[in-house]
Specification:
Oligomer: single chain
Bound molecules: 5-O-phosphono-beta-D-arabinofuranose
Structural class: alpha/beta
Strand content: 15-25%
Radius of gyration: 17 Å
Number of helices: 6
Largest sheet: 6 strands, mixed
Order of helices and strands: HEHEHEEEHEEHEEHEEEE
Helix content: 25-40%
Shape: globular
Distance between the termini: 30 Å
């Protein structure tokens, strides 16, 4: 019988916990991501009894889930660095470059990734692609710049659409870029960041994952 999506998420979350466990000390600080795969990781971490001192969360939802397990959650401004960041993704390629931000938390996720010594990305293999861009690329934008950013993204060959009814934690809008096959993720990440009014884009290419764990019907694959 084939494994369900939930079982695949649990399996890859367990693989991440097994990977970090030997490296943890009572001083370890962890960055924890957002989404259903990250939630499975929180469930396992919360009952693991492993040594670590606390966490920084990439969303309020994850922070609450961590606190429900009695795990300390700190503000990143109080922390020097994070030993590991464990989070999901919307798409991942073989170079460990990612699209993230389907949950609109991309700016916070990018800051946590930047503060981390080692990023473990966890996903089921449905997220694996040869070329990034089938998943619409999320971009956080200052509201008054909506039109100029949309025009610039059209000029780059994408089909930008404002995500209706969504305001980010930073009081900005999200523009999702559809039909955007991203041949050079690092160059595209840089180019989008140059558009005035863009706060952050969901390409995690310059700071991609350090380890990508992908669960499938035959087990968990590890890409580094
Ligand atoms: C976060 O959660 C986001 O960057 C990404 O959008 C999403 C993946 O969620 P799930 O694990 O539920 O597919 O990491």
């Amino acid at each position: 019988m084939s494994k369900t999506q939930d079982e695949l998420k649990r399996e890859v979350a367990q693989a991440a916990l097994d990977f970090i466990a030997p490296h943890l000390t009572p001083a370890s600080m962890l960055g924890i991501g957002t989404g259903s795969t990250a939630n499975e990781f929180i469930n396992l971490l919360g009952t693991s009894g492993l040594p670590f001192s606390g966490t920084v969360a990439s969303s309020e939802a994850s922070a609450q889930r961590l606190r429900d397990f009695g795990i300390p959650v700190l503000d990143l401004s109080l922390v020097d660095s994070l030993q590991f960041y464990i989070d999901g993704a919307d798409e991942a390629n073989g170079a460990l470059e990612l699209i993230k931000g389907g949950g609109a938390a991309l700016t916070r996720e990018k800051i946590v990734a930047a503060a981390s010594e080692f990023f473990v990305c966890i996903a089921d293999e449905s997220k694996e692609v040869a070329t990034l861009g089938k998943f619409p690329l999320p971009i956080e934008v200052i509201p008054m710049a909506e039109n100029i950013v949309i025009n610039a993204l059209r000029a780059m060959g994408g089909r930008p659409e404002v995500r209706e009814g969504v305001i980010t934690d930073n009081r900005n809008i999200i523009i999702d870029v559809h039909d955007f096959m991203i041949a050079d993720p690092k160059a595209t990440e840089t180019a989008i960041n140059q558009i005035t009014g863009v706060v952050c884009n969901g390409l995690f290419a310059h700071r991609g994952a350090d380890l990508l764990l992908l669960s499938g019907q035959t087990g968990v694959r590890s890409l580094r």
